[in-house]
Amino acid sequence: MVLWKFTLVMRIDIITCLPELFDGPMNHSIVKRAQKKGLIELYIHDLRPFTINKQKSIDDYAYGGGAGMVMMIEPIDRCINELKKHSTYDEIIFMTPDGDELNQSTCNQLSLNKNIILLCGHYKGIDQRIRDHLITREISIGDYVLSGGELAAMVVADSLIRLIPGVLNDESSALTDSFQDNLLAPPVYTRPAVYKGWEVPKILLSGNEVLINDWRHEESIKRTKEKRPHLLD
Ligand code: ADE
């Protein structure tokens, strides 16, 4: 008997000038399942219809000169205003290499929100006034520059969606992911127990849950020391 039912827990609106980029990654696997289960609603908004010029351009030369175009203020402001007519947003997030670096604790925190907007930048960036007046948070997925914020927005959306209760089934629970307790996940194995003479650690075949959990914890610590020692500080 089903005693309870998951209800919509998060709405994500993504603003982009390249909506077609989202067709693949956001329509498969876990993200698709989350939408089907009604746990998330994901809307991709094309910025271009919000332009106010005949050419439908969304970028212009930078004041003061210099190389690179800047995304104009009007289409972004108009698009955000349109969205705000129908929902209130907990966060309006700009994806940018100079934002706060994404980590698991930010993902956990963001996954508790009801409604968020992810704004994807392009070219040399967006008019600073958007950042000053409309954006509530700026996120980078690492110290490197992508051609646009779309891949970064997909990374954020994916990392949040998998944390929403009911999205993953129990055995792949997000609580056992790397970083959830500031430790990397331990090594995992599946059948066969021996392949080309390469053996699965005996303890994992012992059936002793306590010993297996201890082993996994020790392996997590070992891996974290080797690969991300700063997490143990
Ligand atoms: N846009 C371009 N590069 C980016 C990055 N590293 N993180 C977030 N958004 C970006």
Descriptive tags:
elongated; two-stranded antiparallel sheet; alpha/beta; 9 strands; five-stranded parallel sheet; 233 residues; binds adenine; Trp Operon Repressor, Chain A; Alpha/beta knot
Structure report:
The chain has 233 residues and is of the alpha/beta class. The chain has six helices and nine strands, in the order βαβββαβαβαβαββα. The chain folds into two domains: 152 residues, SPOUT methyltransferase, trefoil knot domain (Alpha/beta knot, 3-Layer(aba) Sandwich), CATH 3.40.1280.10; 57 residues, tRNA(m1g37)methyltransferase, domain 2 (Trp Operon Repressor, Chain A, Orthogonal Bundle). A five-stranded parallel sheet has the order 2-1-6-5-7, with helices on both faces. Strands 3-4 form a two-stranded antiparallel sheet. A two-stranded antiparallel sheet has the order 8-9. The chain is elongated. 24% of the residues are buried. The mean pLDDT is 94.
